Amino acid sequence: MNRRAFIVGHLCLLSAAAFLVTGCHKDDFPAYASNYREFAYITNGGSNTVFIYDIVNLREDREVIVGEHPVAVAASAIRNEVYVVNSGNGTNNGSLTIIDTEKNQPVATIAVQRAPVALDIDDTAAIAYIANSGSNSISAVDLKTHREKFVMGVGEKPQAIQLTPDNKSLLVSNSLGNSITIFNTTDATAGQKPRAVFEGCPGAGNIVVLPDSSKAFAACTTGHQVLSIRLSDGKQPDRAEALMDVGKLPGFLALKPDGGEIFVMNAGSDTISELSTPTNDIGGSYLMGAHPQQGLVTADNSQLYVSNSGSNEVTIYAIDDGQRIGGVSVGDGPSAMALSSLGHLLLVVDTHSGDLALVRTASHALFNIVPTGSGPNSIAVKSFTVK
Fold it and tell me: What is the third-level CATH fold of 66-153?
């Protein structure tokens, strides 16, 4: 056994012993109904697997084989399914794997186009939209028939994809095309032309949309800016509102659930920028850890968690007070994060050390570290009840 495996195993034993001897405070660990299930799904890009963690019983459930080099995962809000994008080897087409969450087993793998990297789900229409960076296209996959339904062309090297909450519009960022492409989804068909294209967003990346579907914001990573777009309401066309300067290498955009603010992760300047969505004003910039990667705002809009890949720490930022209030050391290279459905646990993917860190949100204390697999890179949480 290597030293790291021993340390992780020792920490797991200590955590389990503390759990058995002292019990857990009800604010930290809820009492669940016997038919309640909740799992975290972590894609392991280096081992072609998905690691599944049982959040109810606080233990590994299993690890399942999916397609080649999984890079993204999303959970259905209405079906007991999770969807995994497999980017492939860059030469062959990639694929989408569907996992049945009641059995935690893959039930289908559907070929798409080259080098898919991101997805979003229209649960109402049962369609997964997948950004194919190697073929400059979007695949629409029918989740009922398990087949690629149609393909739409976009700009060069699509990087991120985002449906509006009303499912009427689809936004795609084209990182080498330095642009944002917008489609109507209500009448989407093969070869459909975009509704609008906005250029002048260098290194276009992460996109967020306000809860009322009125505005979208895109990180212009190599331009050190964020682009604001007023979306069409059916009467007025889409229009660019502002191009706002932020820190160096803005990557991830963390939107407050109430839609009032966005926090921009500036990986190149070790800061976050605060953006007011109604006015497109940039407020203060605040130092975080080294190379902030992703941000996650709590459901009550009060706190922001920031994963810092260069300092192996998650920083906690109090939004109303405008200041850091602490940090938690996790594994090597923290990146993707998710909250448990009831918000009592923060789950952090450590890309370099290949593990999952679990942090108690009530105390901001590390609870456990669990090995996942090789090169974990994304996470989704799915909860449901069984009959």
Answer: Thrombin, subunit H (2.40.10)
Give me the residue label for tokens 């901001």: 364
Tokens of 142: 């029918």
pLDDT digits (tens, 9 = 90+) for 10-60: 344 333 333 333 334 444 589 999 999 999 999 999 999 999 999 999 999
For residue 387, the model assigns a pLDDT of 87
Q: Which helix (H) or strand (E) holds 83?
A: strand 81-86
**Residue 254 near residue 219, CB atoms below 8 Å:** no
DSSP bridge pairs for 201: none
Grouping H, G, I as helix, E, B as strand and the rest as coil, residue 18 is: helix
Tokens, residue 280 = 């497109």
350 contacts 313 by C-beta, under 8 angstroms: no
Identity of residue 154 = V
Nearest to 379 by CA among 132, 167, 71, 99: 71
137 C-beta neighbours (distance < 10 Å), count: 19
Helix (H) or strand (E) holding 7: helix 3-22
**pLDDT (tens digit per residue) in 71-118:** 999 999 999 999 999 999 867 799 999 999 999 999 999 999 999 999
Sketch the domain layout of the chain as residue ranges: 66-153
Of the candidates 331, 337, 333, 325, the one whose C-alpha atom is nearest the C-alpha of residue 364 is 325
Please tell me the total number of residues recorded for the chain in this structure: 387
Provide CB contacts within 8 A for 20, sequence distance 6+. Answer: none
CA max distance for the chain: 65
Q: d(Cα 36, Cα 253) in Å, to the nearest integer?
A: 32
| Whether the Cβ atoms of residue 258 and residue 301 lie closer than 8 Å to each other | yes
Kindly state the average pLDDT of the residues 56-69: 97
Strands of the sheet with 239-245, listed across from one edge: 204-209, 215-220, 225-230, 239-245
CA pair distance 347, 146, nearest whole angstrom: 30
CA-to-CA distance for 250 and 154, rounded, in angstroms?
22
What does the block give as tokens for 273? 């920028």
